[in-house]
Design a protein that fits this description.
Layout lengths: L1 E7 L12 E5 L5 H11 L8 E5 L12 H5 L4 E7 L3 E3 H21 L1 H5 L7 H23 L7 E3 L2 H21 L19 H27 L22 H17 L2 H29 L16
Parallel strand pairs: 1-4
Antiparallel strand pairs: 1-2, 3-4, 5-6
Helix pairs in contact: 3-5, 3-6, 5-7, 6-9, 7-8, 8-9
Keywords: Endoplasmic reticulum, Lipid biosynthesis, Lipid metabolism, Membrane, Oxidoreductase, Transmembrane, Transmembrane helix
Family: Belongs to the steroid 5-alpha reductase family.
Membrane topology: Multi-pass membrane protein
């Protein structure tokens, strides 16, 4: 058995005023097992609210880490921090992607409410409406049936920040801009231009479909590398991974770039730039994690997100 003293990293929450407390752990107990013991002692301090760290290092200890490897056989002191109310990543994703699925139909089908007049939708607007809805329906289905998350929850307050990106930029801003009279069937911006050419719209749709299906293929590859209910990571290979670590982000950027090319919409451009910048940051981080975790096993010459560029 290993004796572990648990103290509060900051002011303890009201339901854990009994801290510090000393707990006895099995020699093979992990940080996750220790969290379960804390939750048994303080039931409202459930596992996902806890962050366990060393007293001398505030970095979070991974749940798989063995207590004996952290403190030694003699035991010692660890700190716990309350992360606040939590919400599952799956629920957050459903809320994020659900916003545009509600907002776009409201703007598209109720133009008088938004623009003070009826809008006779052009072929361009009809195509964009269908592509945007299909994109977010795909994301919802992937969230339910495909994605396996390395972390089960996040702080509840983050749902508002995360959702704002989709609800405002790809939701309200994009819908309001693209479905307005400027893009209608009688607009000079559309009439007699390539944006009113059916061949152009179908070519764009074909490129968009290629990018979306490639993105889905990448997600299925990543899913196959992680058994259910685990946090196992493995080196991804196959379609899309020959030159980059995060082809899912690369293909999503292509899909949104197509929407920009079809419409020339400022809102579409802003969303695509912001989304691409954020995905690039995530890609660089994941790329570094892959190289650190797998070392020489990780293929040399891969870039993070854009082949031969980044």
């Amino acid at each position: 058995m290993v004796s572990v003293t648990i103290s509060a990293a900051s002011k303890p929450p009201p339901f854990a005023r009994g801290l510090p407390v000393t707990l006895e752990c099995d020699a093979n107990a992990t940080v996750e097992d220790l969290k379960a013991l804390i939750a048994a002692k303080f039931p409202k301090f459930y596992v996902s609210r806890q962050k366990i760290s060393l007293k001398t290092d505030r970095s979070s200890l991974s749940d798989e880490k063995k207590i004996v490897d952290v403190l030694g056989k003699q035991g010692g002191e660890l700190q716990v921090k309350d992360l606040g109310p939590q919400i599952s990543w799956r629920t957050v994703f459903l809320i994020e992607y659900g916003g545009p699925l509600v907002i776009h139909p409201l703007v598209y089908h109720l133009p008088k409410l938004w623009y003070g007049q009826e809008v006779q939708h052009s072929s361009l607007q009809k195509f964009v409406y269908a592509l945007v809805l299909l994109h977010f329906i795909k994301r919802e289905l992937e969230t339910i049936f495909v994605h396996r998350f390395s972390h089960g929850t996040m702080p509840f307050r983050n749902v508002f920040k995360n959702s704002a990106h989709y609800h405002i930029l790809s939701g309200l801003a994009l819908a309001y801009d693209v479905y307005r009279p400027k893009f209608s069937v009688t607009s000079t911006y559309i009439t007699g231009t390539i944006r009113n050419n059916e061949n152009f719209l179908w070519i764009c749709t074909a490129i968009w479909a290629f990018a979306e299906l490639s993105n889905l293929h990448t997600h299925l590859t990543l899913r196959s590398l992680r058994p259910a209910n685990t946090r196992v990571r493995a080196v991804p290979y196959g379609y899309g991974f020959s030159h980059i670590s995060c082809p899912n982000y690369f293909f999503e950027t292509i899909a949104w770039a197509v929407i920009c090319a079809m419409t020339g919409s400022v809102a579409a451009g802003v969303f695509t730039v912001v989304a691409t910048a954020q995905m690039a940051l995530w890609a660089v981080k994941k790329h570094k994690q892959y190289k650190k975790e797998f070392g020489k096993e990780y293929p040399r010459g891969r870039y993070a997100m854009f082949p031969f560029i980044l």
